[in-house]
Amino acid sequence: MSDAAAPTLIAVDGGGTSCRFALLHAGARTDLQAGPANVSTDFDAAIATLRGGLDRLAGCVGLSAKEIRAASGHLGLAGVVDARLGQLVAQALGLRSAVVEDDRRSAVVGALGPGDGTVIGVGTGSFLARQVAGRVNLLGGWGFRLGDEASGADLGRGLLRRILHAADGLAPATKLTESILSELGGTPADVVAFAGRASPSDFAAFAPRIVAAAEAGDPAARALMEEGAAYLMRAAKTLGWSAGEPLCPIGGLAPRYAPFLPRAATESLVACKGTALDGALALAARQAGKGAE
Fold first, then answer.
1. Do 251 and 286 belong together in one domain?
2. Mean pLDDT across the chain
3. Which residues contact 78 (CB under 8 A, 6 or more apart)?
4. Domain CATH for 59
5. N vs C: which end of the chain shows fewer Cβ within 10 Å?
6. In terms of C-beta density within 10 A (0-12 exposed, 13-18 middle, 19 or more buried), how is residue 174 classed?
7. What range defines the domain where residue 64 resides?
8. Nearest to 166, CA basis, from 175, 207, 246
9. Does 1 map to a domain?
């Protein structure tokens, strides 16, 4: 197929911090970035960001707004909690041949490419996924209130819990727990007050210090990292992962678990092949292939 005859594809990786767009047209790829787009927390603002990004993409290559919205596409967006919301987004944007879903599957396809393997995604939140023969099965990703085990937010919450346990005499205080207690005001009541107003990102802000303290031998921090690593391994095995199959860490925190994983896991670790935006573009190509059948 010549470049001129190749289908036009659109891909979006949208999150609460920024939104990335890619357009493949006439064999050339165009990328751009815009502001946040979480359709659950602010639907109208997210749609405005997405619409503006699509219009900018169209302008970059001389397509009309109508032409770009007719292209096959895949939008992986934070906050798309079910198919109904995905359909509402597609309708609001006037997309006729695009799939809109949450951002996990595009991250998996970007990380693994077409190959089999398991992804451990850990940042402020967490999820795991396993891809076999192009099919992606997901686990976790249920959010901070009920899930996100081993995530940065979960580590931070666990640290504050250990501070309170130390105050109650249930666990020994450590250098890390005493330091954080002092920073928060010095009393258990201060810890509780902070937790009551903290967002997941606020809890996750403690994660880098927890990791560093764990690597330095702090007992409370090591326990948190070991518990997180145990959860990640249990989840990976639940998905069907076994030693020797590629295990790909994505997200800012996932690679920091490597020293706390069993040898079979560390020997299976592989680097990401691409980004979530690359994955969304690959899924858009699959969508175009289905449309041509």
1. no
2. 93
3. 14, 15, 16, 37, 38, 39, 40, 102, 103
4. 3.30.420.40
5. C
6. buried
7. 9-110+275-292
8. 175
9. no
* 92-115 average pLDDT score: 94
- Tens of pLDDT, residues 48-60: 999 999 999 999 9
Structure tokens at 234: 């249990």
Residues 6+ apart with CB under 8 A from 89: 39, 46, 47, 50, 75, 77, 80, 100
The structure tokens 């990102």 sit at 201
DSSP tag of 242: -
The Cα-based distances of 161 to 89, 180, 196, 252 in angstroms read 39, 12, 13, 23
Q: Are residues 287 and 195 in the same domain?
A: no
- My answer on whether 264 and 175 are in the same domain is yes
Summarised one tens digit per residue, pLDDT across range 150-180 is 999 999 999 999 999 999 999 999 999 999 9
How far is residue 24's CA from residue 206's CA, in Å, rounded to a whole number? 40
| Residue 71: φ, ψ to 5° | -70, 155
CA dist 168 → 138, 162, 171, 259 (Å):
39, 10, 8, 31
Bridge partners (DSSP) of residue 9 are 24, 72
What average pLDDT does this structure show over 93-119?
95
Q: What CA–CA distance (Å, rounded) separates 85 from 72? A: 19
Residues 6+ positions from 208 with CB-CB distance below 8 Å: none
Neighbouring residues of 244: CB distance < 8 A, sequence distance ≥ 6:
264, 268
Six-digit token pair at 87? 């359909």
Helices (H), 173-275: 175-184, 188-197, 200-204, 207-215, 219-239, 263-266
Q: Are residues 266 and 280 in the same domain?
A: no
102, 128 contact by CB (below 8 A): no
